[in-house]
User: Fold this.
Amino acid sequence: SQELEQSPQSLIVQEGKNLTINCTSSKTLYGLYWYKQKYGEGLIFLMMLQKGGEEKSHEKITAKLDEKKQQSSLHITASQPSHAGIYLCGADINYGGSQGNLIFGKGTKLSVKP
Amino acid sequence: NAGVMQNPRHLVRRRGQEARLRCSPMKGHSHVYWYRQLPEEGLKFMVYLQKENIIDESGMPKERFSAEFPKEGPSILRIQQVVRGDSAAYFCASSGGGEQYFGPGTRLTVT
Assistant:
């Protein structure tokens, strides 16, 4: 069974609109990573969250980890065509963290229409 | 400030040949991870190495796959006697103990 569920699987938004991508785990998360992947390319690190209730922002992207540490959301404000790509959440579900073997969701494909 | 380097970026092998994928971690990083991304599937962990040690190989297929991270030089993921099902993108990530940074990947095609 998939331990990390991402929703939606795909998303098409008009440029300038806000959007949210969710990542839900069936287990406690000890480290939650957000990456962006362009088709056929590598993963670009966006943010890492570890503490329940933690929130981080970079430019127009904000990520949160809920208090119970089983769900994270990625919010993009005023989307631009450059935000298009596949967003992946990855998680360390090992107590104590830093075990290395992250599990990943299947990704959310974001398209931004000019 | 070079990131994680992988080569080759694209590799074509015939069934039965060997594939060698290389990964040079970011400067200062001593932890290397290999992941595989199959078409239409998510990224799956394969192996975690530190210099000269395999820390966790729970995601490695039992046969034909091996990995090493020698004291000097890049980490190598080796696939012997490749089959069509090995066609995938193989990503390497490195860390200094915290965030994992990914390389551009090697796309292996088995014909």
Summary: The interface with chain A takes residues 4, 6, 31, 33, 35, 41-45, 48, 55-56, 58-59, 91, 93, 95, 97-105, 107 of chain B (CB under 8 Å).
